[in-house]
Amino acid sequence: MIEAAGSAPTLAALAADGSPLGSAARWAVELLTAPALPADEALAPRFVPAFLARHPRGLASTLAGWRAQGPFTVAEYQPVAHKGWVVLADPAGTRHTLSLTLDSNGLIRVLALQPETVVPEVRSWPELEDALRTDGVEHSFLAARLTPAGPVVLHETAADRPRPTGSAYKLYVLRALLGAVERGEVAWDDEVTVRPELRSLPTGDMQDLPDGTRVTVRETAHKMIAMSDNTAADLIADLVGREAVEDSLADSGHHDPALLRPFLSSREVFELGWGDARLRERWAAGDEAARRELLREIARPLTVRGSDLGATVHRLGLDWHMTAYDALRVLDRLREDGDRDASGTVEEIMTTYPGVSVDRERWPRVYFKAGSSPGVMMFCWLLQDRAQDAYVVVLQQAADEQKPIGDGLFLRGLGARVIESGLLTRPAGDVR
Fold first, then answer.
1. Distance separating alpha carbons of residues 81 and 348, to the nearest angstrom
2. Would you write out the chain's pLDDT as a tens digit for each of its 432 residues?
3. Cα 348 to Cα 1: distance, rounded to the nearest angstrom
4. Does the predicted TM-score (pTM) go above 0.90?
5. Phi-psi category of 379—alpha, beta or left, where left has phi over 0 and alpha has psi -120 to 50?
6. How far apart are CA 127 and CA 61, in angstroms?
7. Phi and psi at residue 415, in whole multiples of 5°?
8. How far apart are CA 84 and CA 24, in angstroms?
9. Gap between the Cα atoms of 65 and 342, Å rounded
10. Among 146, 351, 347, 354, which Cα is nearest to 253's?
11. Which positions ≥6 away from 7 have C-beta within 8 Å?
12. Can you list the domains of the chain with their CATH numbers?
């Protein structure tokens, strides 16, 4: 039972959400609004061990600091699969966002309270461009309708410029896997084994599984896309082989596959990007053959920790560079894969997490992938309406440091504004 004050419709929506996320969101709101704060031992069972490890002195002091900004009223609740955002208003009317991310077992992996990210309304493409302009940040944008004759561009900005994309690379790994499944080389019920040399860093939760744990290919691929699990991606890439993933680049329409050769795993990017500085120097100076040799040398358990990440490394080529058009083409190929897949596995993988709240009456089919790393943020969607008309939206940002980009809530919000605005389906020539 939620005892917090707030908007009646929002409180009703929060109370009615019977999902694991709804349960976690109600519990988190009560932490900040209930008369008393539970003891740490009562809090611990709700969180993954990695979250608790980041708070060795307990959660009480952090939560007490958040509670001191109240009392709060609940203003908005936005659940999207395993992520949720609750907007809370303090006595002065200042709004804060309580963000939650769950792992696959329903435990809280991320819980954060920060000032609300205000996203402006987007009623026209010029308004979108005004919102995207940020000092020190390069951006690309593409909105297009997919037709049998090719994409019809609705609006674009630097859409043919390669930019780092973070985890969007997993779309190519998925297509390499789909090729192996179609050729009969891999079955969805086959298993992969968690091994030390394939263990990566979050996002995701497969890195927390004990060595030797066996997980089906289907579940691993699902986590790779729906939860952007880095260890899952590395397990799938290892299963099909680096060459198969590199072949998928051309098959998926990447404009210059050489940009991503050798194709990096997430573990390799972490190790090269934030490990021994001499590795970065060798990577930056090496040709493709030298870089492949370097990857063979670091085929070992990861030495980098999440706390080591900070400086940007994407300008050294330690990322996966794509244009907005590359993103459009790989999403369109995946739509074709989904249409061809009688098992429904592709559709289930690609539609589980839409990234933002979407009107399913208007958009019954939504494919989504995001990507980020220090100085990098990227979101892309393929949306198909009931008339089978499909549209792609791609937003990309790159900067020399993370601060001007932030945590991605602003760029994600702009994507939601575009999807909600009607701009995608507005008749040609209507510039309102």
1. 13
2. 456 677 788 888 899 999 999 999 999 999 898 888 888 788 889 998 888 888 777 788 888 899 999 899 999 999 999 999 999 999 999 999 999 999 988 999 999 999 999 999 999 999 999 999 999 999 999 999 999 999 999 999 999 999 999 999 999 999 999 999 999 999 999 999 999 999 999 999 999 999 999 999 999 999 999 999 999 999 999 999 999 999 999 999 999 999 999 999 999 999 999 999 999 999 999 999 999 999 999 999 999 999 899 999 999 999 999 999 999 999 999 999 999 999 999 999 999 999 999 999 999 999 999 999 999 999 999 999 999 999 999 999 999 999 999 999 999 999 999 999 999 998 654 444
3. 33
4. yes
5. beta
6. 42
7. -60, -45
8. 9
9. 52
10. 146
11. 73, 74, 75, 76
12. 5-115 (3.10.450.280), 125-163+322-425 (3.40.710.10), 166-319 (3.40.710.10)
Q: Tokens 């404009």 map to which residue?
A: 255
- Among left, alpha and beta (phi > 0; psi -120 to 50; other), residue 422 is left
Instruction: Please name the residue ranges forming H helices in 44-124.
Output: 49-53, 60-67
Q: How many CB atoms lie within 10 A of CB 265?
A: 25
Structure tokens at 3: 């005892």
Query: What number of residues does the chain have?
Result: 432
CA-based nearest residue to 80, from 405, 366, 356: 356
Residue 296: strand, helix, or coil? helix
Residue 247 token pair: 């072949």
Q: CA–CA separation, 256 vs 87, rounded Å? A: 42
Q: How far apart are CA 235 and CA 241, in angstroms?
A: 10
Beta bridge partners of 383: 366, 391
Distance set, CA 16 to CA 8, 104, 405 (Å): 12, 21, 34
